[in-house]
Amino acid sequence: MTRLRFWMMTVLLALIAIPAAAQKPGDGPHVRIELVAESDTPAPGSDVTLAFVSTPQPKWHAYWRNPGDAGIPPKATWTLPQDVTAGEIRYPVPERLLIVGLMNYVYEHPFATLVTLKIPASLAPGTALPVSVDLAYLVCTDEVCVPEKATLSTMLKVGDGTIAADRRAQFDKYRTALPRPLGSQATYQVANGSFRLGVPYPADAAVSDVYFFPITDGVVDYAAPQTVGRDGDRLVVETKAKGAGAGPIEGVLAVGKDLGFTIRAVPGAVAAAPAGSMAQGSADSIWLTALAAFGGAVLGGLLLNIMPCVFPILSLKALSLARANDAEGNPRGEALAYTAGVVLVCLALGGALLALRAGGATLGWAFQLQDPRVILLLLLLVTGIALNLAGLFEMLAPASLNRLAGRGTGGSFMTGALAAFIATPCTGPFMGVALGAALVLPWPAALAIFGGLGLGLALPFLLLGFVPALRRMLPKPGAWMETFRHILSIPMFLTAIALAWVLGKQIGVDGMTMGLLVVLGLSIVLWAIGRRQARGQGARFGWVMVLAITVAGVWLASRSPIQAQAAAQVPAGAEPFSEARLAELTAQGRPVFAYFTADWCVTCKVNEKAVIETEAVAKALADGKVAVLVGDWTNGDAALGRFIEKHNRAGVPLYLWYKPGQAEPQVLPQILTQSLMQDLASGK
Amino acid sequence: MSKWILTGAAAAAAFLTGASAPLAEPAIGAPATNFKARDANGNIVELAGFRGKTVVLEWHNPRCPFVKKHYNSGNMQKTQAAAAAQGVVWLTINSGAEGQQGHMKGPEALQFVSGAKAKPAAYLLDPAGLVGKAYGAKTTPHMYIISPAGKLVYRGGIDDKPTADTADIASARNHVSAALAEIRAGKPVSVAETRPYGCSVKYAG
Fold first, then answer.
1. Which chain B residues contact residue A102 at CB under 8 A?
2. Alpha-carbon torsion A595, A596, A598, A601, what sign?
3. Predicted TM-score of the model (pTM)
4. Is it the case that residue B52 has pLDDT exceeding 50?
5. CA distances from B194 to A76, B68, B69, B172 (A)
6. Phi and psi (nearest 5°) for A560?
7. Is residue A250 within a helix (H) or strand (E), and if so which, with residue range?
8. How far is CA A240 from CA A68, A190, A197, A217, A336, in A?
9. Which residue has the higher pLDDT, A420 or A451?
10. A-B Cβ pairs (cutoff 8 Å, strict)
11. Pairwise CA distance, residues A257 & A237, whole Å
């Protein structure tokens, strides 16, 4: 990625080099700066934000607060009316510019830095506030540097603090470009000349093109490449250290284009991220990661063959192939059909998962097993297979049985599909890493991994189908096969019991009993079908009954009352935050709990999972008739940003509690506890 | 002693083969990497030849505004003259590649030295950037001080006012003068490492 950007930059520079070369250094200013106030009439006792709106000439760059290997940060000297104070300059996320081994942290495009002025409360409206600043800054091209100076001034007047709509929009844009404070503290470690930084970052938040811009000087080698790994709720940046490193350090972690977080890191142990855990760096390395993950997926799929949840199904297939050994079969066709079934189901599940994730749902692999309806469907299917293996009935009339065993490419396809579908819950322990990679990789690479999983699962049968020598090693068909088939029904019944248990976990004992009743009904019908088959009669009506019972059972499971309760864990009636809605609710005299969160904030996610979304807290909030407002700052919404800035400069998480009758909210600690929330909700 | 020889040999190898192999930048307190370079008169100057003397290295680019600040004000010449009076060897080094800003050939360099009334013991030409890269020189000016024992005792900026404004020189702490005074008094250098400031060294791409 970096390399790509470098080349693009080189090409761009080459394109603009011809007109710019005519430009003599010294014809200034090479960076045009304008001083703009958000409000020309700030209210007494308020803050007003000023922006240095800067536009570098093509090919020229200005410097960030840490300029990198060479260069100078800008310096502002203010001339302000009495008691008016200016804060520190706040910078947008910079760009990297590597020139012959020297790293520069710069802005090559128009940018704006912000400064906050504090207006004392003692000033009377109408007081003139002349603001002037001497700005000394360095601008360079790749070849030359020019120190420039600008004296900028603006005239403010103490007033009512109104902000014009266009000014507001302009400043919202500037604010969105600033790095956001990442609520949680980072850790760094310097050992053997290498610097490793661990930054808390939620595992399910997407990242790309991560780079650590240090603010503290003398800690890392700026020009050294940085490698980034991901380890659960942690981003790990590794690069070459400079110096021994001691005390806290500050910096900006850029995550993708224009998104950055200010971080503070303290010394401590930082474990390396697992290898290949990040789609990061050049495009080659993404595909290298994908290739490694694909290999892992094939291997994992191979391992799945011996898992208890898959083995019985595979045994079915083995029987069929053993029969196919009788020379009249079509082992290759069957093996291919089986492989197609497995791979297609894996791809379909993977595609569905990716589509759902893209849609914003928080899902993991094996998500289909989180739905009791799917579990019941599987339970019925597995029981049916078990009863079939046990010999209660045949899938088809005895007359067509031989045909099925001989050339059942359709049957093989279905067996494969079934094996893949049932195998997914077994993937966890073996496939965790590969699937994790699949979820951060571009979708074609991710799908390749799902396909690899299927390929691995199908591999033994593919071999069996195409290598007659292997097939000859299978035992000859005979009467033993019937006994073997009956024995195979035992693991299948065990699988059914396991599924019933999962169902019970999901929808309780009542739901499980209901499910087992459906299973019994299905068994009775299958038994009846078997008896008719034994007499050589058709059983079309029986199959219709099987379908009816299955559909009715699944419908019953979806109606389970306990399931409805399990879903009620998000605070009842939570609505998106807006200042208007907040005013409305407080005017009604309702207590309001407003919380601000972002997908990239680990502390937020922990508080939500462990406190806000628990049953106990949700119930306490509902009992206390507390209105819950949720502000999602993931995309840096400007209106939310202003509100957060007003109440807490540290960004998210921010938890505000409005008691009825009190204008000012109580700012709750960044780490919530269930008892704190329950006490607040009950009005203690 | 043996360290000197080793690092010297390594530097000489790099010098002779012309390879820009990255040598380890010497750390404070570590033996300074030896080097050989031609001066503006075409003579070969070797660092190891100055054993027993304090040596100052100054990275230079005559057209860099930050270098101009210290030469146009006379600050750099004053520091050089004071150093020379104490028997310190001052080597001004230009690592600007041919075609880059500030690159000079011998005659131009001599003209600069006499024109600016500069007082270096030698003006070294390092167009391939070998010496600059061996020391990790990043800016002009970038200053290094090597003790009589051949150890690196200071590296960083010329002073603590990172501006291009000559008016700031009067109130600045000149890190090089301060370190030289401490060395003369037999004391350890109190500020041994600072952040250099200036233009980037214009190395060969």
1. 138, 200-201, 203
2. negative
3. 0.61
4. yes
5. 22, 20, 19, 14
6. -55, 130
7. strand A249-255
8. 14, 9, 11, 14, 51
9. A451
10. 56
11. 17
